[in-house]
Amino acid sequence: MYAFEYHRPASLDEAAALLTSDEIKLLAGGQTLIPTLKQRLAMPEALVDLGRIEALKGIRREGQAIFIGAGTTHAEVVASDVIKQAIPALTYLVSRVGDAQVRNRGTIGGSIANADPAADYPAAVVGLGATIHTNRRTIAGDDYFQDLFTTALEEGEIITAISFPIPQAAAYEKCANPASGYAVVGVMVARTGDGVRVGVTGAGPCAFRATAIEQALAGSFTPDAAKAVTMPVDRLNDDMHASADYRAALISVLAARAVAAMG
After folding, report:
1. Domain region containing 218
2. Were both Cys, which of 15, 97, 199, 227 would link to 256 (CB 3.0–4.6 Å)?
């Protein structure tokens, strides 16, 4: 490790005031940032640890939405009866994140801010039509993920909570890398009052909606309808883990499995 300043503010305002340059980084659960620091892939001049800020923690239901504080750990999301009753598919998705150690340290806000293209949460953000709440504004989930590790967050902006509308039904299916547990492809299918949403993670540089599958399922909400869609391969990842063609096929297959799981 190398020398850097370490701050542990007790309030959101105090944390925001410390973000005076892009060389100062926020620390949430640290499950990505700490290994990155060890490998010298990032060398910020200071870290601002959000762990003491109670306003960033907690889970609650407000009307037809579930609000999750950005500092809430994955394990707390999995254990929440509020989420299990309202969006069991989200409970299942988060139970597939990493391993027990990661789930006990990592936070939902940290994961979404990092925007790893193979993380699980992005499929839920896009598939359920979530809203990202920050210390400055709200950002629609459809507008949040922009490119590889790139989001709509501006410099000095801090995620405070994520709200998920409660769907009529939803399911998540994932093809996990056997070594890392990250999604080679993950698909969240949700039936909402506004129609069908299909969120995809792992397949491209960032999470996206599979609109062709959404349209097919709007006409016939069956596994066969989802499986029959041929997804375009442009903009899909092509690497040592899976080809673009394989990922395109997986999207349709996993969407079909999610529909089947929803009965």
Report:
1. 169-261
2. 227
